[in-house]
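Appendix B, record 7
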Amino acid sequence: MNYMDACKYLNISLNTHFKDKLTLKYIKHKYYSQALLHHPDKNNNTPESIKRFKKINESYVWLSNNVHNINYNTLYEPNRTHPSSTSIYKIIEKLYERLNANIVISIATTLIHAILITTALKEKYLKIINNMDESTCLYIYETFVAYQYSTNSELPELADWIKDITAIKCNRLEIITLSPPVSDLFDANLIQFNKYDTTFIIPTWFPVSSFTLDINCNLKNKSPTKYTKEIRFICRPQLPPNITIADDTNDIVVNLFNDNVHKCEQIIIGKQKFEISLSELDQQALKSNCYIGYNLLNVGVPCLNYLIDDDEYDNLNKTPIKRANIIIYIHLNLKK
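Structure tokens (predicted):
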């Protein structure tokens, strides 16, 4: 998550008044309006609406935690073009050494004009690489890897996506999505996944687990060769639309939308049950602001920095678990 993405999902404009507007109160106001507008229940619970709602929650949590660290001079400069193009042009020059000019122009246009990934952008790039042979895709992939550090500082999400989708095309990356029950995350369970004569151990609380393998390649009429392939596991636990997990902190974010103020709220996440009691002041604040937030500290799923050594797999229950937080937002629906 970064400032540009967070502001995009909360519908916050990056204009000359940005510094004066961006306060915790303003962020909360924008979050509330976007959460109501894009709540999955109001959008037929489509996969797109669920994904967007998750991004809205993550953006609110991330931006609220980082609002006081913004460098406004670099975040918004009226005469600055976004993104800077130094390493992008290096990539284009490198691609021109070998690839067809039309292919390079298409990739260059995609890189220079796109700041955020859109559906149209994905479709455009997929069309570009669908007709490429493996060696061409491999060349593009290796070029992006060579300039990975500089492109990630300019176009982090876009550079990663182009590199990954090209790596899949040239068989340098395989992505496997797992959907464990959320109770597996609370229990710090591990998944054993067998493939390529290898047993992979995946912590369920890690959003992404990556492994590399040396693959033998035996092509007809060619000498045997080896190449490195990344096996990437994506863990997406089974969650209702109003509950998300922040990828960068593992904090669970719960949104409750009520028609009335209750003295007590019960939150069920998988097999876990949590209760919050609202004081009279809390109830009054909820009535006044139509919104109130609670933090349940160190009771969620394991933190991302909770690691298990190989010799601890059999003694997992004896290892103290460092847990992330549960952030609960109670919203009072506005009556028409």
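Remarks on this record: The first strand starts at residue 173 and ends at 178. The chain has four domains: 3-75, 86-171, 174-235, 243-332.
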